[in-house]
Fold:
Amino acid sequence: MRRALFIAMGLVSGCFYTDPLNQRPSIRIDQGSSHVFYRGDTVDLTAVANDPEGGTVSFHWRAYACTDANLGVDGTDAGCDNVPFPGGGTSLLQGFSFVVPHLRATGAPVESLLVFLEGTDELGATAKPVQQLIIPLGDAPPVVTASRAFHQAYVVGQRVDVFAAVGDADDGILPPPPLTWTVFSPMTQPTYTLVDIPDVPADPNHPELAQFGKTLTPMGAGSWTVQVVATDSVGMTGMASVDVDVTADRAPCITQVAPIVPPTGQTLPLDQATLFQVLVVDDDLDVYPASTDPITGVTSFSWSLLPPGATQRQLLSTATGNRVLLDPSAYAPGDILELRVEIQDRQPRSLSGCSDNQPTCSVTGDACIQRQTWRVEVR
Amino acid sequence: MRRALILVLVAACGGASASGDDQVDAGTSGDGGGVTDAPGCSIVLTFNPPQPIADPAAPIRATAQLHGALGVPDYMWTVQAPDGTGVMTTSASTDGSMVDFVAATAGAYHVYLDSGTGTFCPQGFAVLQVSQPGAQVADYRVRVTPNAVDGAPPQETIVQVLGGADVTRTLALDPGLVVTGQVKNGSTGVPAYLRFMPASSPNGYVEVFTDSTGHYSTRLLGQNHQVLVVPTVPGVAPAMDAWTPQTTTLAVGPGNLVTGTVKDGSGTPVAGAQVYVTGTVQSTLATTAADGSFSVRTSSPASSAFAVGVTPPPGRGLPALAANAVSGPTIAIQYANAPTCDLAATPVKRGSTLEPGAHVTITGLLANAATMNASSAGGRVQIAVTADGTGKLPSTLVPRSPLSSVVDLGGGDVAVASIDTSACAAQTISAPAATTVAGTMIDAASNPLPGGRIEAVPVGDLAAAGMPIVNASADPTGAFSLALATGGHYDITFSDPRAHSAPLPLTNVTAAGVPTTALLGKALKLSGDVSVIGNANPIIGASIQVFSLTANASQAPIAETATTQTSTYAVGIPDPGTM
Structure:
């Protein structure tokens, strides 16, 4: 009917019939909500088209990785790559979804994107102008975590391994940002050393982060802080710190022995071969029994015997463990002897403040004793 | 208001604890099940088979029984393999109270059951020990000695270990009872040393000294004990008393008199000898008078068959005597008529050098050294003497016999040399230099073992001479060096202080018997939590020692550790292996 009307009008006006003019479609890019994108993010764009003839519009997306998208596709280091970025930089669909690449073809980090959208209707008319969208990219700061090796205590002069895990997801496969380590020492400003730990494996819980380590050896007591700052290629920083409360080495304490220690003036009847043992020593570094903490050591033991009738203790120089065996058969019934143990950790402390006839001794003058004495009667 | 409601509901559940355990190993596995208690409700988890063997084709059935639960329970099972990974379960009943799971590898499986909040039940938990096919079985005694603040006495339990798999064992300590009492002789309090030996584990004893009036206070397991009572005043016989939780008095008394005489081979009374008899327990100690007579007090009937011990006075060249089954109440002790030999001027040398001040102990065993009534007594020679300033022995009588001499040159430099006095010929005691054994300690993973420990316990002649233990440690490369008395015998143990490898024990060896490569075996990890029933506080620094089943008071533990700040323990024990 409409076509007949055109023909009739042509005849009346003396004109020939021609097909009506196909108009160009119009297109635009719908970016959805505007927010800052980072490398590695997924970007979803949608083409919105209007064809005056109501026909179908086909699309062609191209996205270029750029340093400065305002310079256009010039292939220079300052501008954009000459070709859309591989792995998703082109699409013929209405919706265009891609993951922001980390690097340009030049190897430089991608700092912006240049996106072109072309539309063509089914009769071949192209939308003018080609739609262009510049997506500036943000730069997320590096992620940094800091931790320290767990120990029962942190003691002056003893190593503390500090670890920093760092990653910058939006910087992709770039080398992890360099770290700056800063040690904040206590008010008294004691000295310290901070030494690299080579080849620290990644934390299994955070395999995406590269991990580095340093050994801090603090030479004074107090609250220490190790701060780690990561700075990425565009100057963004991430920071983490770990505190270490360092104490002076304390004296080891005999906490359990066997058999029972007789009270003053009493003797322990020795009626069978018996192991005299220090069962447990409490210390910040050198415990007994040995702990699984690799930085801890084992208590040193020194045993001496006051034989029956003797006035001087004999050092049992070969007995350096936590126990000695007393066999009553090596003595006469009725013999009275004294067996003594003294302990030390790695920092020797003199027990000379205690007289020889004191059965126990504490360098700190409290219940933490480093000497114990059994007065034994052979039966 | 809500809290009050919950309390009322819990009380309404009303069920009693299904545990009732008072053992150190309460509430855990190895017996194929576990009990979780809470006021009002308990969950019992059982397994079929109760002692499963790792087998990917044979599922294990877990069954939950809820006692005193409110509402309809949900059965939410979680099973963790020894490596901590989850194990899939398959429901085996319509209500979910039974599930099957597969234990493909050996080890401790942790099984949890949540019954839903509506039941007001605690989480059910059990550790199921799954063994290797063909696993060998070994039993160990585990002694836990908590600190006084923990509120539990020392106690022991038996842990059965199946070869090839680590063992998880929760040690729930019985808090026992705080007991008080008094040691009395008639109505008089007597100071004493007490050794309470529980019926269930006599080696896990508790020692205590009374005050001067005989009063004692200590913490014991609430079970029957035998108590060794050794009075510390003269005239009262040591006794072995029975103790129950109701006991408040431990009775001692003068006991029964056993008398006798000690005479030498010529019939001359021996004055100054020390004599005791042992019936149930050792008697008082007597010193013979000038006429050789003695009298001791024993808590056993005087006519009992006693073990008798005699220590001669020094200088007579007589051996100490020991005999069994000698009947009282009168005991005639007669040394055999054995001649002695004087070692006067016997040089003590190392090489060609005389050793002034060397301490020499002459040791040896003599058969038929005496008679005690009709019984024969063995003799043990143990005569100590010190070389004079010229390196020669002063006048020293010793029995005529093949004997040994232990020469102590001080500083741990000890040697054992034979000396035969049978013919009383002139002797030289030649003390060879110590033998240094060097080698390497290798752990179970075939790596050198830095810091490995070596403990050499003297036996035989060295033990008779009272020589101390010899300890050494491996250096950072695992290398060790151990100086042992040449000619001496030792029980030697190589061990890993961090217990990642099993100890290597060597019995009664000389220096030549010490391997230059000490290869430690595979260790299994025995680990778990330690708690005191009814005490929510952490148990920190409690001693954990693992012994062989037959170990006595003189034998060192196979392994030992102490509980951590979080009440856990882990210790390496020898792997019994698999067939």
